[in-house]
Amino acid sequence: MEELIAKADVLLEALPYMRRFAGRVVVIKYGGHAMLDEKLKSGFAQDVVLLKSLGLRPVVVHGGGPQIEEALNRHGIETRFVRGMRVTDEATMEIVEMVLGGQINKGIVAMIHTHGGKAIGLSGKDGRLLMAEKLLVRVEGKGNKVENVDVGQVGRITKINPEILERIAGTDFIPVIAPVATDEDGRTYNINADVAAAEIARGLKAEKLILLTDVAGIKNAKGEVQSLLTAAQAKRQVKAGSIAAGMVPKVECAISALEGGVGQVHIIDGRVRHAVLLEIFTDRGVGTEVLLDMDQLPQAVRDAAKAASQAKAKAKAKAKKP
Asked: For residue 319, how many C-alpha atoms fall within 13 Å in the half-sphere facing its CB?
């Protein structure tokens, strides 16, 4: 009986969030370990199907770096990176599009169907959803000289045409999008999946953007996961260096999305099964929620955060006294 009551408590905890987010768009960037582990893959599909069943409007944007690397190795194509960007010539682009738009995209669609949902696979080229231009990577050379390096068919998004997603929104289908774009002349570009998800979230004015990662969240200088962060705080931490390396571009995507009208951004641990549900429907969550500013939070939450901060400051001051 106690176990059944505990389950009822979980549902009651989730109820306010179900009401709040019903009918709202949630863009989820699916990548990292969550795409490679069978249990996590199954859990992710279940999460997305449940979101749709509860009246939310999930949109999935996926990556596929490890799968692309494996396919390139099989075809004997050497991979080279410039500042983390894969140099993408025509032969590489063919493999990238084949893996992202075929193997991975259709696999996610099939997985969602297996768990009782309906999904439709798209790439950014469909309906000209993602328009792009060549991205030139800024590299600092000798004598602090900065030059723009051409890394091939890697793109920078210039425009979002969300019409195709808006048409799908009134149906039972969940869009699953491969981050491949086109320019005005029909040339194909590979797009960073985090960036594609952020831009799509901006274009749809999504309530939430969720970035699945292989870390527990955004950590502070002490290595502690921060459950809540404003855009201004995140910028200061990037400048101070406490947010560094691979987390910097994710945080930049988060800030860009927030400044473009997205309600909240969540950087969460995709290694946790059902991480998406835990982040959306529980009070604690499983990662870091990034807000444009604290005014977005309910007054009660702001008051609690202020009280906790004051108590922490008092304890710290008391500990310093002789």
From this structure: 6
| Confidence category of residue 319, pLDDT binned at 50, 70, 90 | low
Contacts for 240 with CB less than 8 Å, ≥ 6 apart: 221
Strand pairing category for 228-230 and 188-190: unpaired
Tell me the pLDDT tens digit for each residue of 4-18. 677 677 778 888 888
Query: Cβ of 122: how many Cβ atoms within 10 Å?
Result: 24
Extended beta strands in 73-117, E state:
81-82, 85-86
State the Cα–Cα distance between residues 42 and 274, nearest whole angstrom: 9
The distance from CA 20 to its chain's CA centroid, rounded to whole angstroms, is 21
The closest of 22, 16, 14, 15 to 208, measured between CA atoms, is 22
**CB within 8 Å of 146: residues ≥ 6 apart:** 138, 139, 140
